[in-house]
Amino acid sequence: MVNIVTNNKSVTIIIASSWPAITQNQLTQAIPEISLLAKTKLVNFSYDHKLPAAPQWQSFVDLIRAEAADPIGGLVVLADLTLALYLSNVISFGWLQPTLPIIFTTGVEDLFFKKKLIKAGGVKANLINAVQLATLAKPQTVILDGFHLIAPSKAGFDQRNETNTLVSLDNQYIGKVDFGISFSEETLPVQVGWPHHNLFETQIQVINQGPFAAEVISAQAKGLIFVRHEPQVALAESFLASLEVPYVIFQPTLLLEKTSTPIVNYLTWHCLVVKFAWLLAATDNQTLITNGLLNPYLGEIMGS
What we know:
Layout: E1 10-17, H1 24-30, H2 34-37, E2 39-46, H3 56-68, E3 74-79, H4 81-94, E4 102-106, E5 112-113, E6 116-117, H5 122-134, E7 141-145, E8 148-150, E9 155-157, E10 166-168, E11 175-177, E12 181-183, E13 204-208, E14 223-227, H6 237-242, E15 247-250, E16 263-264, H7 269-280, H8 286-294
């Protein structure tokens, strides 16, 4: 059951998806409760590029900041699960200190069936709660999925649950939705410093580590992410030293101490991709990027 609390604030709802654009009237007809919560404006953001490091990341940051320039109470972004994970991290790094609540929520696919708008299922509760949250929360970027409020840099898929849900991978939540919305007393940590920008390098190549890794590197790549599934199979140091662009090795299967080596398992996958792209837009220096990955700009280091 969704607890409706009326509010006279304005909220902009951005639908980010590859589905056909919908109108304000269509959304209101599908979920009429949102009109009781706030004065809403609907914006469609067409997203059709292959992930990760899509060229539209920069356009999305520009859109969010442009909409936030209007006198509104907050922003809600509705997307599918994967896109919500990427774009919420993009905004987290692209706007370290937002001036209003930016709430990402999921279930956009529930609004469509054979390219036609239908009555909403799970998305209904998500969107109602997200709009309400956008009028109440502190200025910060969060993900609302089901009953949980999650920091984007800590969010990921629940591997123990067959349903498509998001959880905090270190089991730390910003708040929860029950018969109302409650927040933890802690504010998301933000460490402002280099780099001072909201740009992202889009020419990133993801390579599954193996004996033929060198043969698949693209000449256009400005950065490389090697995914290392077997800890005992390492890339040769001579090969890594020969690389002409910055790289990072993502190793999800082995817990390591945080070191100055570019082997990462202390960030979630979606956070790593976005943070790497953000750092690459500022420098191509391997040492600066490695140190930047270790720097907890948003408290994103797992276990911290």
